[in-house]
Amino acid sequence: MYNRIYNFAAGPSMLPLPVLEQAKEDLLNYKGSGMSVMEMSHRSKVYAAIISEAESLMHEVMGIPDDYKVLFLQGGASLQFAMVPMNLMKTGKADYVVTGNFSGKAYKEAAKYGTANLAATTKEENFTRIPRQDELKLDSSADYVHICYNNTIFGTKWYYTPETGSVPLVADMSSCILSEPTDVTKFGLIYAGAQKNLAPAGLTVVIIRKDLIREDLPAFVPSMCSYALMAKNDSMYNTPPCWPIYMCKLGLEWIRSVGGTEALQARNIKKAKLLYDYLDASKLFKNPVSPESRSLMNVTFRAEDDEINARFVQESTAAGLSNLKGHRLVGGMRASIYNAMPYEGVEALVSFMEKFEKNV
Ligand SMILES: *Cc1c(COP(=O)(O)O)cnc(C)c1O
């Protein structure tokens, strides 16, 4: 009806069609307000209802207990690489598990504010797997342990939540938030740039256990980087990203309508299995990731010959399967199959790959 293509972009990425349709319906006149959500004051009653509904839906859909605060911030996941150490480094040291590009950036950024200890890395193995618990060199007196739960570029995910004792666990869930049920109580802080699995770009969601919110921050910390100030003002210390928060609310309503994170997990496993099963049987394409660490959201693959990879990207794009070119750090191809990607999209991709392989 709309001539939409299957968009495999890593982020910004596909949004669920019902979300876009609702946004379209609301666009010119939101619920009789006579204006769009993009035009209204963030201090208005009608907008206050939107942001508070978004916050309570986060609690409901993700199962976030009341001793956690949900914050709607800006600056992307990348600003959290700095905000986490600025706010949580009390004694000045933290453990970092580096499993890819973004966790590496977080680790580097943290070193500006204190001692960032490399608790484990799989760099020597090209980040093709997640370290086991017994490989993590954790310091029991660290202020927190930082991990990246799903590695968007290298296509790996954690299948266990590391045991960190009384040290709070901090997780970057930018590319996997709400893709499966999460036991939030195992984390001190979770953050996610919204543009992969939640909403349009411009919004970062932070879920922080309330006892970790500190007021006594070093003087250099900008007001805008204080979780305490943001929490005290219910994410309205300044103008919040009004439109992405509204879109996030629609996205959460959609997740609820399709059966919540359990239903999405089942769908995501089914989608990823279709693709990995094909790759494992393929003579042309390979996925380099260890089977026990394979991401359900970002699936990388490549042929040995880079000319074939380039041809694949070109021909798949022409066939309405877009943005399959891999990240430059990995090369080859990457299919990002977030919550909004329907099973039919993965089916279309696999059948295209089968045809391509036959004709190579
Ligand atoms: C995309 C991504 C980031 C960077 O997000 P920005 O919002 O662009 O800052 C960080 N971490 C992960 C896991 C990502 O996928």
What's the helix and strand layout?
Elements: E1 6-7, H1 17-26, H2 45-62, E2 68-73, H3 76-88, E3 93-98, H4 101-110, E4 115-121, E5 145-148, E6 150-151, E7 156-157, E8 169-172, E9 189-193, E10 204-209, H5 227-232, H6 242-257, H7 260-281, E11 298-301, H8 306-318, E12 321-322, E13 333-336, H9 343-359
Parallel strand pairs: 1-12, 3-4, 3-5, 5-8, 8-9
Antiparallel strand pairs: 2-10, 6-7, 9-10, 11-13
The structure holds pyridoxal-5'-phosphate.
Number of continuous helical runs: 9
Which class best fits the helix and strand makeup? alpha/beta
Bound molecules: pyridoxal-5'-phosphate
Strand content: 15-25%
Kindly provide the radius of gyration, computed on alpha-carbon positions and rounded to a whole number of angstroms. 21 Å
Strand adjacency order, main sheet? 2-10-9-8-5-3-4
Distance between the termini: 33 Å
Looking at how many chains there are and whether they match, the oligomeric state comes to single chain
Q: How are helices and strands ordered from N to C?
A: EHHEHEHEEEEEEEHHHEHEEH
Give the overall form: globular
Q: Describe the largest sheet.
A: 7 strands, mixed
The total count of strands amounts to: 13
